[in-house]
Amino acid sequence: MSKTLKIILGVLGTAIIAIFGLIMFGLYLMEDEDRYGDLVYFNQKVEDGDIIFRCKYSGELGQTTEFNEYGIIDRSWGSVYVWDNQNTIKQDLYDWAEKGNGTRVRVFRIKKNDFNMNKVELKDGTYNYLMNSGKMEFVTENY
Q1: CA 134 to chain centre
Q2: 74 phi and psi, to 5 degrees?
Q3: Which of 34, 53, 96, 110 could pair covalently with 67 via S-S, beta carbons 3.0-4.6 A apart?
Q4: CA 114, chain centre distance (Å)
Q5: How far is 68 from 118, CA to CA, in rounded Å?
């Protein structure tokens, strides 16, 4: 085999492997988007320890959504997980959000070090009062 033929086959082989790799990477990204939908971008915005609220139910269109459950964000190995408010069950973000009302979630970051989320109680059946309290800062939401 001539030197020119070896070079051509080497370049052609490298190009085929590179194209195949790009296709596989694109399919991997599409799989994440298909699974998580709008939640796929949460991975870039949230941090460990952020508080995520979900609503179990909602009123009619135009009414305020009542966020009556919360969890704590845990990021590991490029994925986002949520611990329930008792710190007993760790679930994938998508699975946790799906148990709510159409994946309606809001994420907040605690601003004050003396604020203890474990001592917070429901008021009128919701945690909505916390969202405007000044103790937390808004990070992102999904409606």
Answers
A1: 23
A2: -135, 115
A3: 53
A4: 26
A5: 14
